Amino acid sequence: MVEIDKIFDSFSGRSLFKNKNVLRINYVPEAISHRDKQIENVASILAPALKGERVSNLFVFGNTGSGKTLVVDYVSDELVKRVQANGEDVLKIVNVNCKLKKVADTEYRILAEIIRQFGGSVPVTGLPTDSVYNKFIEIIDGKKQLVLIVLDEIDQAVKKISDGFLYTLTRLNSELRNAQISLVGISNSLTFMDGLDPRVRSSLGEEELVFPPYNALQLQDILKERALQAFNEGALEEGAIAKCAAFAAREHGDARRALDLLRVAGELAEREGSKQALLRHIDEANKKIERDKMLDIIESEPKQFQLVLYSIINLHERTNGRQFFTGDIYDNYEGICNKTRNEILTQRRVSDILAEFDMLGIINARVISKGRQGRTREIKLMIPNSILSKAKEIIRDSVELG
DNA sequence: CGAGATTCATGTGAAGTATACCTTTAGGCTTAA
DNA sequence: AAGCCTAAAGGTATACTTCACATGAATCTCGTA
């Protein structure tokens, strides 16, 4: 892919990008700026892994885009490289993103995903969870090794499932004869630990690290480095980087956001046929990112979720953005289902769906009591007006609402 | 007039069901000796 | 007799339903000042 991109780019001859991948969020640069301290910490905690010894369970906290995943990935890579260079085979690192719906959002699926990364395969359903555990043990316990399980966005998983599986995971070590397991949890929420079962907390929180957000200057540094590799010379208007950094600094020092901004701004400029990414492209990029993020979520929701969302949007438009209640939504939803010959879920289920939308930030829901008028959720749609019609279009396409 | 009881519309927990899929097991059939 | 295939039996995870009880403030009721 990389090669093809390059070929096409150089062929068209007027691309702004030298190597766009540098700006992608999963790109691990060779040197990481302004995270020396953190790298040092993580590395020293995980260092015993080089000899295949068990390391302390580690928890990493910090806002989105503060480099948590990056640092952990980087240190993992280095560890693996080092181990391989020594010609040994005592360390295996698996990385699971717990947020991915339908991939790793239940205990069963997280475990299945880990096994899959070991080259095993697990059916989608049908197996008892314990036998999946057994399979997991079997697959890793074949030889002496350390298995480092990195659970990204672990707070999401614990919110959906209980924290029990973390406990089971930590307890697994006593059942292993040869291999050992260590966990690295990555979480956006600083308060994540508070809600945990004390037993889990004590066994998991052996080591904790907090990543502070980047400040605007640090962001600029990072952007400069990446931009140098990513863009051709002169492809950026003066001050573009500073502007991206400023935008992102406002978003709690979110470096991911900053990189996205730069990339999308470049793409926009390119599409326009402009020779330079201009400052105004960054403003546009800012809007586009926000928009795409939301639309992606909407698109990937299951059918029934989309139907519920559609009725929320309807209501939102009809009430001119004022707040409304569960009952209104359900009535509307029923109507839509009837009209489109879709199954109608129960109110109970819809209630849960609304709770999930709330977690996703698509709506803002608050349980209130209206006295004689009973108790309900007061709901407000959080999708910006500018993308409402696009959102409706997506849902209409995927549900065939006509 | 105010304290306490009522009430409404839905939140919420627990248990049950449908579906889709898995493994095990017991026949039944084929095959090679 | 051993090997292989198939279908039935028995089991699970997940998404959803059913049942039943919990909530909490506006409203009502009624005794009292």
Please, could you describe this protein's structure?
- The protein is an alpha/beta fold and 402 residues long.
- The chain is 52% helix and 12% strand.
- The protein folds into 3 domains: 4-17 and 214-296, Helicase, Ruva Protein, domain 3 (Orthogonal Bundle), CATH 1.10.8.60; 36-210, P-loop containing nucleotide triphosphate hydrolases (Rossmann fold); 301-399, Arc Repressor Mutant, subunit A.
- The chain has a 5-stranded parallel beta sheet, sandwiched between helices.
- A hairpin with a 5-residue loop joins strand 7 and strand 8 (375-381).
- Helix 9 (216-230) crosses helix 10, helix 9 packs across helix 11 (255-272) and helix 10 (240-250) packs across helix 11.
- The chain binds a DNA duplex (33 and 33 nucleotides) through residues 106, 108-109, 123-129, 131, 302, 304, 325-327, 345-349, 351-352, 355, 367-377.
Summarize the structure.
The protein is α/β, with parallel strands linked by helices and 402 residues long.
State the order of secondary-structure elements, H for helix, E for strand: HHEHEHHEHHEHEHHHHHEHHEEH
Widest beta sheet: strand line-up = 2-3-4-1-5
Sequence stretches where pLDDT stays below 50 over 5 or more residues: none
Kindly state the percentage of residues in helix. 40-55%
Key traits:
DNA-binding; Helicase, Ruva Protein, domain 3; 3-stranded antiparallel sheet; alpha/beta; Arc Repressor Mutant, subunit A; 5-stranded parallel sheet; globular; Rossmann fold; 402 residues; 52% helix; 8 strands
